[in-house]
Write a structure and sequence with these properties.
Blueprint lengths: L1 H9 L6 H18 L8 E6 L4 E10 L3 E10 L9 E7 L4 E7 L2 E2 L17 H18 L5 E4 L1
Antiparallel strand pairs: 1-2, 1-7, 2-3, 3-4, 4-5, 5-6
Length: 151
Amino acid sequence: MTGKIEQDVRRKYVPHLPSIQRVCALNYVRLIKLLPDCDTEELEYQFRVNKVLNYSIKIVECSRYTSTVVMSQDSVIGPDFMHPVVRVRLYHDAQLAEVIEAQHIGALQPSYEYPNIKMHQKNEKEMVNLFLSEWLLFCSKHKDQLQATSA
């Protein structure tokens, strides 16, 4: 029995591509609905949920087929690690939005050996894209409070 458990732990995670594409397509739709203009660099959208919780989405790069945005949660309470930051690339031709950096960890691999020295989950990339999906859903519920600012 122990041998089977060790094999399961050591087995390489193989991402289910259709599931990941579905999440990335959903994230693209949610981001486009949330951002009236996603083609203007340095444009920043902010919304306040309550007195201590703010969210911001900043467009940091725009090109013909892609845009890159940085989403962050700002709160006056809680430690820094509880303030998530993700960098998301929007592929306009494929209509997909993919997390390319989360919590200052860039170049997320599709899968990781487990255990590993950096304590990444086997499906770390899939998990951060699911997190983005839930985060965007939350943000869309508070869209009424959205304010755009330009640098």
